[in-house]
Amino acid sequence: MQAQILEAAARTITPAELYARASEGGPLEILDVRTPAEFAGAHVGGAKLLPLGDLDAEALVRMRPAGSPLYVICQGGTRARNAIEMLRRAGSEDAVLVEGGTQAWMDAGLPVVRGASTVLPLMRQVQIVVGAVSAIGALLALTVNPWFAAVPLLTGCGLLFAGLTGMCGMALLLARMPWNRTQAGCGVGCNEVER
After folding, report:
1. Which residues are catalytic, by number?
2. Strand partners, 114
3. DSSP code string of 47-100
4. What is the Cα 57 distance to its own chain's centre?
5. pLDDT: which is higher, 168 or 147
6. Are 69 and 7 in contact (CB under 8 A)?
7. Cα gap 123→75, rounded to integer Å
8. What 3-state DSSP class applies to 194?
9. What share of the chain is helix, strand, coil (3-state, %, to 5)?
10. 106-116 burial by CB neighbour count: b if 16+ within 10 A, else e?
């Protein structure tokens, strides 16, 4: 119990440390705040899906026993940090960031549960949309009206803001699209654990 309290105070844990803790057999609560499609593609075994956009931090804090660590994970860490901040504002000090997220977990060669997601990862969707909008804006600025140069300027500023703050408005918008909200659970074919 003392180790859990110290760990919660540190507020971060590496994937390897979390895997070792899970291997000990004690109860762990892992919250995955990615989109349902990302979760269906690959997730940490035993993790519960609650997309960041659906997170009601106050309700979650009321439901959970105080003093029990809640390990929060996303793809790379940004959404998990945002979720932890929401939980802290709601009065929880028990949220622990899984450093590097699911990507770091997989990079460490730890086992994941794989499903059959056919949706591109959220950040690739952002790259496609921002790239397409920027290219179209630049093309229109060259051929139709120079004022269309504002389009790639705005998308560039959006990327700069996302890089500086870790908050990507385009990712939040795309996460709410219907293709990213399907596959809410892990159905057939999602029981295979891979290394």
Report:
1. 74
2. 42, 192
3. -EE--GGG--HHHHHHHSPTT--EEEE-SSSHHHHHHHHHHHHTT---EEEETT
4. 16
5. 147
6. yes
7. 10
8. strand
9. 55, 10, 35
10. beeebebbbbe
Locate the DSSP E strands across the chain: 12-13, 29-32, 42-43, 48-49, 70-73, 95-98, 112-114, 192-194
CA distances (Å), origin 126, targets 48, 67, 70, 131? 25, 37, 29, 8
Look at residues 42, 9, 18 and name the one whose alpha carbon lies nearest to residue 195: 42
Under a CB-based contact definition with an 8 Å cutoff, are residues 64 and 94 in contact? yes
The string of pLDDT tens digits covering residues 7-61 is 444 589 999 999 999 888 878 999 999 988 888 888 999 999 999 888 999 999 9
Distance CA 105, CA 76 (A): 10
Residues 108, 17 contacting (CB under 8 angstroms): no
pTM of the predicted model, to two decimals? 0.67
**C-alpha closest to that of 35 among 126, 157, 131, 110:** 126
Task: Judge residue 16's burial from the number of C-beta atoms within 10 Å of its C-beta, 0-12 exposed, 13-18 middle, 19 or more buried.
Answer: middle
Q: Is 34 exposed, middle or buried (0-12, 13-18, 19+ CB in 10 A)?
A: buried
3-state secondary structure of 115: coil
